[in-house]
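User: Please fill in residues for this 288-position structure.
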């Protein structure tokens, strides 16, 4: 019987390639760079089609949840208006300022705390106490101190998104190899040179992951604060549409917020892959 696999051959490096391995350069679809995009798109289309069918047959009232096709059409209409992009800009502004503050404080404090065992033991109970506190619980205090404008939104966003960055930075610093640290110490290399050449490169992949996670958290907190305290943006516009009885517009804003989150997350992932090309986590390793 004819075999569907290739016969054993010798590779250019002298290593035998067994018959059950695919020919060189013919990667399967699942290993290609387009597989996540194609499969992800197919999954989204299938989910939208399922929701459309469920609503059209009457299992869910269309007055409560409009069909996705009508929501998408309404979003397309809004995209062509200047007011929509003004709302997006206001949301991104609060998100950006809050995440930037969280990044500066989280990375700086994380490198400092993680580099000192005594300081880490002293700060850990406080960090573990504050980390689970939801930002929404601080809204009354924030309104009293900063009002319901952009400043209050930024403070809440910074508080909510600092923890993934801080924790990742701390554990990234603590992953520094002891042999490498002792070697640099024995050669008299210390201070900023050690941080630049050893500590920061080791912690950078952890920090990048923390930033990517924090970007999603920051958007959630930003929109939540807009909904609750009325800061201008997509969140407040969503509530205004709901109060006005425009259900399709409300869901259009929900869809816009979701799409914005996807764009921001993918952007951080692309930047991470660009600047961490040297790290094994960003390289495919073929294991025989």
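Assistant: Residues filled in for all 288 positions:
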């Amino acid at each position: 019987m004819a075999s569907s696999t290739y016969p054993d051959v010798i590779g250019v490096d002298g290593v035998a390639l067994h018959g059950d391995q695919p020919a060189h350069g013919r990667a399967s679809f699942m290993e290609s760079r387009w597989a996540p995009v194609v499969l992800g798109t197919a999954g989204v289309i299938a989910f939208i089609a399922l929701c459309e069918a469920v609503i059209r047959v009457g299992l869910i009232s269309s007055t409560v949840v409009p069909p996705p096709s009508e929501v998408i059409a309404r979003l397309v209409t809004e995209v062509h208006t200047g007011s929509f992009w003004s709302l997006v800009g206001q949301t991104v502004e609060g998100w950006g300022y809050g995440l930037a503050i969280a990044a500066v404080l989280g990375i700086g404090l994380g490198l400092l705390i993680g580099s000192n065992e005594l300081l880490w033991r002293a700060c850990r109970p406080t960090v573990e106490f504050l980390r689970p506190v939801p930002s929404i619980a601080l809204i009354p205090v924030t309104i009293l101190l900063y009002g319901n404008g952009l400043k209050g939104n930024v403070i809440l966003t910074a508080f909510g998104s600092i923890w993934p960055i801080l924790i990742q930075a701390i554990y990234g610093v603590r992953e520094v190899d002891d042999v490498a640290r002792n070697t640099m110490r024995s050669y008299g290399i210390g201070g900023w040179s050690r941080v630049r050449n050893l500590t920061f490169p080791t912690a950078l992949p952890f920090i990048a992951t923390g930033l990517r996670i924090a970007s999603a958290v920051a958007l959630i907190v930003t929109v939540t604060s807009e909904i609750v305290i009325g800061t201008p943006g997509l969140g407040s516009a969503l509530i205004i549409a709901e109060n006005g009885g425009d259900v399709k517009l409300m869901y259009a804003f929900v869809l816009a917020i979701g799409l914005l989150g996807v764009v921001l997350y993918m952007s951080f992932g692309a930047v991470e892959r660009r600047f961490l090309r040297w790290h094994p986590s960003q390289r495919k390793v073929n294991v025989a």
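For context: The radius of gyration is 25 Å.
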